[in-house]
Amino acid sequence: MYLNERFAGKKVSEGLKKCWFHIALLASFSLPIIVLMFLDYFDIESFHVFNQEFRFLSTWKGRMFYLFFLWILFMESIIDWSKIVEKKPKNRFRIFAFFVCAVIPLIYVLSVNFWGIDQVILDVGEGLGFTDTSLVFHWPLCIEYLVFAFSFLVAIFLAYGKLGLGHFSIALSLLVGMSVIYTINAFESGPGGIFKPFAMLTLPTAACAAALLDILGYSFTLSFRTGLNSMPLIITSSGAAYIGWPCAGVHSLFLFIVIILLFFKRSSISTFRKFIYFVVGTIGTYLVNVLRIVSYFVILENDGASAARFFHNSLGELYFVSWMFSCILIIVSIERFMLVEKARHSVQKLRCFLGNGKDRILNVIRRSKN
Questions:
Q1: Given pLDDT bands bounded at 50, 70 and 90, which one contains residue 331?
Q2: Residue 74 has pLDDT above 60, yes or no
Q3: What pLDDT is stored for residue 188 in this prediction?
Q4: CA distances from 294 to 128, 135, 185, 263, 311 (A)
Q5: Same domain flag for 189 and 199
Q6: In terms of domains, do 112 and 156 share one?
Q7: Residue 363 and residue 286 share a domain
Q8: Statement to judge: residues 52 and 178 lie in one domain
Q9: Rounded to an integer, what is the distance from CA 103 to the centroid of its chain?
Q10: Does residue 270 sit in the same domain as residue 162?
């Protein structure tokens, strides 16, 4: 009994020794997000606009994507656990450099909220031309996302090299992608003006949403003026809203393309099927964004502006997240259970059955004539 317990304890010790580095990685990535969540929940952040609501409940211009990042990071770790723990770095300098990069987000959170770096960020923002809300909200949020995303990106590269970027490609692409999107949107809200290449999808998306609202029987007005900062405007009896490129789902399409291409890279699906899945998924992503806009105006008409604002800030992005994971789950199910092959086999059996039935009926008819 004693020997068995000693052997089991030795086995656990060896297991922890083998995977300690990756456990440290997950802990160092989780800690700054947990600290930030604590500060956000108790409304003690130095940027007062962040204390107006719990930003971890918001997807667009919020921090819920940090939670999605951690969730996907843990899932990717579990899937490739045995491969990851075998690739821990042996070089001490590389391990030290990893921990330096991994701790930068925590230092950033503490320095912004307790050590006066928030004023430095505001001064830099003012120098770049940010004012009002764009200065105290959009600019600090994009800086925060950039610090988190690129610190984690470099830390994983230092830890596991290019193979690490492949293992955690979906989590990293989500966080880096949202950082880039928030940065573009911040400069739009501040000194840059509307980013026209992204704005090209706003009018057709607004028109599709308007057509669906019309089918559902809602009264509204859709207008659009040309110009540098022009956006489609939908006006209803309960309120109005401009349809910007984030509302039109441009960032959702961007994230879908990046994540699905990385998913395809890690799979052995045939090129033709990848193309079909990609086209269907892209169309589905676009339609999900149309449905999100329609849902906003339906909620606005039936439940008021407060409920519509909550949907816009928190629940609306979950349409895309749900679709993204449903799409991947459908693809995995089709390939894992060979549903296409089974469907073909069922169609062939049905055709044979119908052919045999036709031959029997013809034989019966011929015999009755004879």
A1: confident
A2: yes
A3: 76
A4: 36, 31, 22, 30, 12
A5: no
A6: yes
A7: no
A8: yes
A9: 24
A10: no
Q: What is the mean pLDDT of residues 141-152?
A: 92
pLDDT-derived band at 3 (thresholds 50, 70, 90) equals very low
CA dihedral of 144, 149, 152, 158, whole degrees rounded to 10: -130
Co-location of 271 and 365 in the same domain: no
Q: How far is CA 156 from CA 12, 39, 102, 151, in A?
A: 26, 26, 9, 9
3-state secondary structure of 289: helix
Please state the domain count of the chain. 3
Helix (H) or strand (E) holding 121: helix 117-128
Q: Are residues 39 and 141 in the same domain?
A: yes
Q: Which two tokens stand for residue 340?
A: 């296409």
For 12-45, the DSSP string reads HHHHHHHHHHHHHHHHHHHHHHHHHHHHHHTT--
Residue 264 has, within 13 A of its CA and on its CB side, a CA count of 17
Which residue range(s) make up the domain with 345? 339-370
Report the Cα–Cα distance between both ends of the chain, in Å, rounded.
89
Q: What is the pTM of this model?
A: 0.78
Three-state DSSP class for residue 137: helix
Q: How many CB atoms lie within 10 A of CB 158?
A: 21
Domain boundary among 141, 167, 193: 193
In this structure, are residues 156 and 72 in contact, taking their beta carbons and an 8 Å threshold? no
Give kind and range of the element (H or E) at residue 186: helix 169-187
Report the distance separating Cα 1 and Cα 77, nearest Å. 34
Based on the domain organization, do 46 and 125 belong to the same domain? yes
Last residue of a domain, one of 137, 171, 193: 193
Q: 243-296: per-residue pLDDT in tens?
A: 887 777 787 888 888 888 878 877 778 888 888 889 999 999 999 999 999 999
